[in-house]
Design brief:
- The structure holds two protein chains of two kinds.
- By secondary structure, chain A is α/β, with parallel strands linked by helices.
- Chain A has two domains: 4-224, P-loop containing nucleotide triphosphate hydrolases (Rossmann fold, 3-Layer(aba) Sandwich), CATH 3.40.50.300; 228-316, UreE, C-terminal domain (Alpha-Beta Plaits), CATH 3.30.70.790.
- In chain A, 39% of the residues lie in helices and 26% in strands.
- Chain A is elongated, with a radius of gyration of 24 Å.
- Chain B has one domain.
- Chain B contains ten helices and no strands.
- The longest helix of chain B is centred in the N-terminal third of the chain and has 30 residues, at 61-90.
- The chains are: A alpha/beta, B mainly alpha.
- Chains A and B meet through helix 2, helix 3, helix 4 and helix 6 of A and helix 1 and helix 4 of B.
């Protein structure tokens, strides 16, 4: 096992009566990407803020590059590169000037900062806009520049809070590419995301965070297996035909649920063929038959339970 | 990507880099212009309305009023410091600085040095206007220089307090308007516009201990052959508030909430 660059143990942080982070533990090794996946308000950003010394944990410990985030904040700050949830840039300056500014603040000499800025402008495909003031940038451009700004100097630990929110697909892919390169170079990367796909693409290990706790942990594949894989949905608008179809399908499958005009059941291999065969023999014409991956909503609902029992049941049917 | 290994930046360089940026921000925002418009208007209005009345009481208002306008101006410079730094906090820039290896004093200090420059320019503008209506430094160049230094010092000290507030604020407009009330109270309940015996008896002790009164009285003493005893209270206030607000600003930056 290689060196653990982030070590979080039973981390807790409350805001008033709300426990934003309620006993989270995990580790990130050098050369590893770990994803914190969860909905808004799950406690991802609070965890990140504790690790980046923006917030003080109530209890538990967090060490970054071996340094305690409370007792050795200055050392932690020398070990991390951070991209926050909102692009933290100087609106007044141009994109390139921002990169030079952060390079200078981080200890690069005038020439080194300028050279590094040019390099990052190329790397992040910012050439056309590098000379324009940041206040004229689109959201996606800001995110790209923001990430570039956090990579002005090399750090052993990279922390990204929802780095691709608001990015177009091309920029998202470019960013993933950069993260992979850094990982291969030995950087420990911790990122939060709301997108299952992103965790899937990037993270060697994923922690599902909900209500400040780790609801599940594993490789993306392990988690998907745990979630029961795909869902088959049959949409029939005619209520009489739908009732016939439902009784036919209930005879063959367990856990069929109805949600307005949709019949939903867990899909394994051969499910789709069987569903189509049964509908044909019953003489029912479906408006739509699809097999799809569970949505992130369903993933969470199935793993964490929910106030919304109907949806939870639907997701639970995927098991 | 190639490696860019950085030596830890010295605090001095970080200070210089950020001060240059803040200066640019001040110039782009024409912030001095905005800070002097209100006091100049006020100055003109008060001169027109009260000059003759005050001269009936034996007060040369063109000599009495400008130090008050200077104090008013320096307070406005300080308040705009709050606005500017709260804007940086809102944009996330301050949060990024907080995750960088930077000493807690760098960001506030780079703010305050530019505020000092802004205050100096604003005070100069007010003094030119004052001289045009008859204000004079009657006690020589040294005391005139002392006048400007004290005025700028007061602006910096107030700006430190305002920066401490601004660093913790989420909304620049909100925190700026919240400061308007104390600003109005502190400038009016002081010897800025009328002498202390013009206030009702119960309010006079409050007026006398006000740091704003101390500041205005000291500026008046420095613009004329005033007694040195009228300057000392302002210097004591400057020191006390400077330590207090300076510590608050650094603390507000490196605050682990």
């Amino acid at each position: 096992m290689s060196q653990q660059l982030i070590q979080v143990s039973d981390l807790r942080r409350s805001f008033g009566a709300t426990a934003a982070v309620d006993g989270v533990s995990f580790e990130v090794a050098a050369g590893e990407v770990v994803g914190l996946l969860g909905p808004n308000g799950a406690g991802k950003t609070t965890t990140i803020h504790c690790l980046t010394t923006l917030l003080k944990p109530d209890s538990g410990t967090a060490r970054v590059a071996g340094f305690d985030v409370v007792a050795q904040g200055a050392e932690v700050r020398r070990s991390i590169a951070v991209t926050g949830q909102f692009a933290a840039l100087d609106e007044l300056l141009t994109g390139r000037e921002n990169l030079v500014l952060f390079g200078r603040l981080l200890g690069l000499g005038r020439q080194a900062a300028a050279a590094r800025a040019d390099e990052l402008v190329d790397r992040f495909d910012l050439g056309e806009v590098a000379g324009k003031a940041v206040r004229t940038y689109s959201g996606g451009l800001r995110r790209r520049l923001d990430l570039a700004a956090s990579l002005v100097v090399d750090r052993p630990v990279l922390i990204l809070d929802e780095p691709t929110t608001g990015l177009d697909p091309r920029s998202r892919r470019a960013l993933w590419e950069v993260v992979r390169e850094l990982r291969d170079g030995g950087t420990a990367v911790l990122l939060t995301t709301q997108y299952l796909e992103e965790a899937d693409q990037l993270a060697g290990r994923v922690l599902l965070i909900d209500h400040g706790r780790v609801a599940a942990e594993g490789t993306p594949d392990e988690l998907k297996r745990q979630l029961g894989g795909a869902v088959c949905e049959v949409r029939i608008e005619d209520p009489r035909a739908r009732a016939v179809a439902a009784s036919q399908l209930r005879a063959a499958f367990e856990g069929l649920t109805e949600d307005e005009d949709v019949l939903r059941l867990a899909a394994g291999s051969g499910t789709l063929t069987e569903v189509v065969r049964r509908l044909e023999s019953a003489g029912v014409e479906a408006d739509d038959v699809t097999v799809r991956r569970p949505t992130l909503d369903e993933v969470f609902l199935s793993l964490t339970g929910s106030d919304d029992t109907e949806k939870a049941d639907a997701a639970g049917a995927g098991r | 990507m190639s490696t860019a290994t950085a030596v830890p930046a010295s605090g001095l360089r970080q200070f210089a880099v950020l001060a240059a940026r803040n200066l640019r921000q001040a110039r782009a925002g024409r912030s001095v212009g905005l800070t002097v418009v209100f006091p100049l208007t006020f100055f003109a209005g008060f001169m027109v309305v009260f000059q003759r009345l005050m001269s009936d009481y034996g007060i040369a208002y063109e000599q009495f009023l400008p130090p008050a306008i200077v104090v008013q101006t320096t307070a406005l410079v300080a308040m705009s410091a709050c606005y500017l730094i709260a804007g940086d906090a809102r944009s996330g820039l301050i949060s990024r600085y907080r995750t960088l290896p930077m000493s807690a004093v760098v960001v506030p200090a780079a703010r305050l040095v530019v505020d000092a420059a802004r205050a100096a320019v604003a005070v100069a503008v007010i003094l030119v206007a004052a001289v045009l209506v008859g204000f004079r430094f009657t006690a020589g160049a040294a005391r005139a220089a002392g006048f400007v230094l004290l005025a700028v010092g007061f602006a910096v000290v107030l700006a430190a307090g305002c920066a401490a507030l601004g660093l913790g604020a989420r909304d620049p407009e909100q925190v700026y308007s919240a400061l308007t009330l104390p600003y109005l109270v502190l400038t009016t309940v002081s010897t800025a516009f009328v002498p202390v015996d013009a206030f009702p008896g119960w309010l006079q002790p409050v007026v006398e201990v006000s740091p704003f009164s101390a500041q205005v009285d000291a500026l008046r003493a420095l613009s004329t052959e005033g007694a040195d005893e009228r300057v000392w209270p302002a210097l004591v206030w400057l020191l006390v508030l400077g330590l207090l607000f300076g510590a608050a600003a650094a603390r507000s930056f490196r605050r682990s909430r």
